[in-house]
Design brief:
Distance between the termini: 156 Å
CATH superfamily of the largest domain: PAS domain
CATH architecture of the largest domain: 2-Layer Sandwich
CATH class of the largest domain: Alpha Beta
Number of helices: 20
Number of domains: 5
Strand order of the largest sheet: 2-1-5-4-3
Structural class: alpha+beta
CATH topology of the largest domain: Beta-Lactamase
Strand content: 15-25%
Length: 692
């Protein structure tokens, strides 16, 4: 009796006081009214239906009711219960089956009464039910478990089974009673809820923005993107914390968490603190929501750090364009001006609005020179740029010269979307360039006049000088009789030497004039450099000997023949050797080297002395005509400063290169390098020019 009472009280209490979700799997639900009705039936139904004797207590009557199969079978109350109810004896045979169980299972009472589980259900399920029932009979008490059962049609049902043992008056277990709750629909709904929740989580996880839910600033939930923005890896590390902990202190007052504004939708930008100490710029879209009767704010947080950086770059570029010293103008492909910078307004006198009004009124675009629209657009289509220098008018009518450069901005399809113009006022520059051209022309005219004058004067001076030199030579040799006085001989020697010196000077002037006037004509021919060196040194040897100087020759025995102007090459060597002789002290050394150059594969001539040398910063100066680094030394050595200048230009006229090296007090070195192209090939028949 006590077990039956316990079962009835349990079902009633279960329906009234107990949260069924604690007994059922997650997501399942059972209408508590049916459990209460079942409890009333089990606990009281038999009380009224079963006849009682004076000796029988209410508990004994309940056991008699539960034990009497015929009473349950004929009871309208049992059949009225919507929940399937059944009883079994100790052998597992059905003794009571109500109408709800017949309907739910598809089996009739006659098919169930007296049958065991193995007679009704498939063997695996029957084995489970039999094991559960044995445990109930052995241990007693209420047992609740989930079990999959099958209707007669084979349809599967997920059920919750509530079972308890039934005892006789002596306390012996005589069987068990059970109640079946179909939770198939509830379980399906729970599964759908779980799937929906999982889909929601997946969507939140895949959202590009961070999503955070909070109450008055206290974080309740957030998605992985939000965690990544602050450098954390789990919800546990943020849930329960105040949102302001992730905002710099100086910005916390601008975050809408409480107050009237909390009921409004807000869009604002702020900064979040990353776990590594860096800052993340974000845009927040926040709105109030109500969940389960409580107010929350849901914030969608977008990382705009890159956008903020790009905006800074754009602002920097805008200021660079706006404050550019050149005028900048941007138009569409129809010539409609969209932007002009400050410099354009100052230079032209037009504002952006005035430019647009001018286009609307006249159809003429101030971006382009008048009448050249087709030319400009054709160039932009082909090359992507266009350049011009032209005269244009300001708003006040004043004309000026401007240099314009146009370029294009292409759209995603590679077509021209905009045209950018860069305009500079070059009026003063044009005037300066014109002045320079005028000055250049005057200088060229003066140079030509000078060269022509020197050439004419050289020819005019050569004739009397040749006469002076020739007659002084005849008199000095006393061909027509003795002079009779030694003093006359001394004077004649001076006249002869001075005439030769003056003739050399005139020859240098004539050569320089020809070179500068472009009238120097060279006659390339095969030249034997070994013989050329011997000829040049033979002329200078007497002077070197008189100065007690040493001349060292280092000439390659297999020196190739070169194609060059023989007279020019001899003049080059004479100038370099003469220069070395004049500027090397007595007892000094002059070295002449002539060999193949391993770098250019040509021929290199080097004249080196150990004289006083020239400061390195003045080397370029001494290559200029008439340049004298030390005028006192030059006067002592009777020089005009033309030798190196003529030598340099003669070398270049033959396709070679000339360079000099020197340090003050370290001597002087001159290099003449003839390229490989000047060498005469082995297959070419040559007769080298020989100096007589």
């Amino acid at each position: 009796m006590r077990s039956l009472l316990s079962a009835s009280l349990f079902l009633i209490a279960l329906s009234v006081f107990v949260d069924l979700s604690l007994w059922l799997p997650n997501g399942f639900d059972v209408d508590s009214r049916w459990l209460a009705l079942a409890g009333l039936f089990v606990g009281a139904g038999g009380w009224f239906l079963v006849p009682r004797t004076a000796k029988e207590t209410p508990w004994e009557a309940l056991d008699i009711m539960a034990r009497g199969q015929e009473i349950f079978s004929n009871s309208e109350m049992v059949d009225a219960l919507p929940l399937p109810i059944y009883c079994k004896d100790r052998e597992g045979r059905y003794t009571v089956v109500n109408a709800a169980l017949e309907i739910g299972s598809g089996f009739s009472r006659s098919e169930l009464l007296g049958k065991r589980a193995h007679d009704v259900f498939p063997e695996p399920i029957a084995d489970q039910l039999a094991a559960q029932e044995r445990k109930i009979l052995e241990e007693g008490g209420l047992h609740v478990n989930e079990q999959r059962l099958y209707r007669r049609t084979g349809e599967a049902l997920d059920c919750m089974l509530y079972k308890w043992p039934l005892k006789d008056r002596a306390g012996n277990t005589m069987g068990l009673a059970g109640c079946i709750v179909d939770i198939t629909g509830t379980k399906q709904v729970a599964q759908e809820l779980r799937e929906s929740e999982e889909r929601f989580r997946v969507i939140l996880g895949a959202a590009p923005d961070g999503i955070i839910t909070h109450q008055q600033g206290v974080i309740r939930d957030c998605n992985p993107q939000m965690l990544a923005m602050v450098g954390l890896d789990s919800n546990k590390s943020v849930v329960g914390r105040n949102l302001l902990e992730f905002v710099p202190e100086a910005l916390r007052g601008a975050i809408p968490l409480t107050g009237e504004e909390n009921r409004e939708q807000r869009v604002y930008e702020t900064t979040l603190l990353h776990a590594d100490g860096s800052e993340v710029q974000v845009e927040v879209r926040s709105a109030p929501v109500v969940l389960m009767g409580e107010g929350y704010r849901v914030a969608f947080v977008r990382n705009i750090t890159e956008r903020v950086a790009r905006n800074k770059d754009l602002r920097r570029l805008f200021h660079a364009v706006e404050n550019n010293p050149a005028a900048i103008i941007i138009s569409d492909t129809n010539g409609r001006v969209e932007y002009v910078n400050r410099c354009f307004e100052e230079m032209s006198g037009y504002s952006l609005e005035e430019v647009q009004e001018h286009i609307d009124a006249t159809g003429e675009c101030l971006l382009l020179p008048s009448g050249r629209r087709e030319e400009v657009f054709a160039a932009l289509q082909q090359k992507g740029s266009w350049h011009s220098v032209h005269r244009i008018q300001k708003k006040n009518g004043e004309s000026y010269w401007e240099r314009m450069s146009l370029s294009t901005i292409l759209d995603d399809r590679g077509k021209i979307a905009h045209i950018v113009g860069n305009k500079e006022d070059v009026t003063s520059q044009i005037a300066s360039e014109q002045a320079l051209r005028n000055a250049k022309e005057k200088a060229e005219i003066a140079s030509r006049t000078k060269s022509e004058f020197l050439a004419n004067m050289s020819h005019e001076l050569r004739t009397p000088l040749n006469a002076i030199i020739g007659f002084s030579e005849l008199i000095r040799r006393e061909l027509y009789g003795p002079l009779g006085c030694d003093k006359y001989r001394e004077y004649l020697r001076d006249i002869h030497d001075s005439g030769n010196l003056l003739l050399d000077l005139i020859n240098d002037l004539l050569d320089l004039s020809k070179i500068e006037a472009g009238e120097m004509v060279l006659q390339p021919e095969p030249v034997d450099l070994s013989q050329l060196v011997r000829s040049a040194t033979r002329i200078l040897k007497p002077k070197i000997k008189n100065a007690n100087q040493s001349l060292i020759l280092d000439v390659d025995e297999e020196l190739p023949v070169v194609r060059a102007d023989h007279r020019a090459m001899l003049q080059i060597l004479n100038n370099l050797l003469s220069n070395a002789h004049k500027f090397t002290h007595d007892d000094g050394t002059i070295i002449l080297t002539c060999k193949r150059c391993p770098f250019t594969r040509g021929v290199e001539l080097v004249v080196q002395d150990n004289g006083r040398g020239v400061a390195s910063e003045k080397l370029d100066e001494i290559l200029q005509p008439f340049s004298q680094v030390d005028s006192s030394l030059t006067r002592a050595q009777q020089g005009t400063g033309l030798g190196l200048a003529i030598t340099s230009q003669l070398v270049e006229l033959q396709g070679g290169t000339f360079r000099i090296e020197s340090e003050l007090g370290q001597g002087f070195k001159a290099f003449v390098c003839l390229p490989e192209e000047c060498l005469v090939g082995d297959s070419e028949e040559t007769e080298p020019s020989v100096d007589a």
